[in-house]
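Exercise 7. Predict the structure of ArsA-related P-loop ATPase from Streptomyces roseicoloratus.
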Amino acid sequence: MSRLQVVSGKGGTGKTTVAAALALALATEGKRTLLVEVEGRQGIAQLFETEALPYEERKIAVAPGGGEVFALAIDAERALLDYLQMFYKLGSAGRALKKLGAIDFATTIAPGVRDVLLTGKACEAVRQREKHGGFSYDYVVMDAPPTGRITRFLNVNDEVAGLARIGPIHHQAQAIMRFLKSPDTAVHLVTLLEEMPVQETSDGIAELRAAELPVGCVIVNMVRPHVLDEAAVRAASGDHRDAVAETLASVGIRGGTKLVEPLLEQAAEHAQRVELERAQRVALTGIGVPTFELPFLGDGADIAGLYRLAKELRRQGVGA
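Solution. The predicted structure, encoded as tokens:
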């Protein structure tokens, strides 16, 4: 299984929640996983109900079987200072540049530099080793930018490599792109069973494939259970007022006639949603990548919910 797991998705699909659940799933049975945030939203800290993540690796959870989940919020400015020290040995001079505002200028204005720093730091974490020689982490999970930006975010290293023909920047960008396009990386897209997210997922996968970036799977999030069987779904579109009224009366519900219309409306809405979801599942099947589903968490995405989602991912074979 790929050691760098990149999770993207249309806004509102719960990609950060899925990334966190995936990190827990991959850490099961004694593995070590690093969950990386690159957008500066501190969404991971909120999910795990911990204080804001610093620019350093911190353990935030223990997975079933003794595995551990660490988290890191990558800051572009700090990453650039690391880069300047690594390649140019600037040390205190780099800190002086930060005080002068040059670091902020470079990460905000210079084309592609910010994304190179963010992806480069994540790739560095994948290759990080302990003193005994083994990898520090079995897997690195990146909570990446939304689907509409993911291909450019990951492929920007190619653009920078084209601008800098020689030198450390060129070699760094080329090394990052080789890793991101290798089997060691997988890009997963999170969606809902709704038309717009599914279409954006389809478009996103097409863009990733065109850029030769490795597509992993589609994870359908917040799937609600079906409360009607197939026969009931078909029947919900008909006129059954009398039958519903008789049934309510037969079980002793007083004033049941007032409930007939609301019940029929809810049944029709549910039937409509089931048909819509069926059509979106067909569309996802046509994309041609593995698809997994996660249930809707009625109580919200708290820590208990994350463990539930991680267990469901394991049950479906993700990370097993």
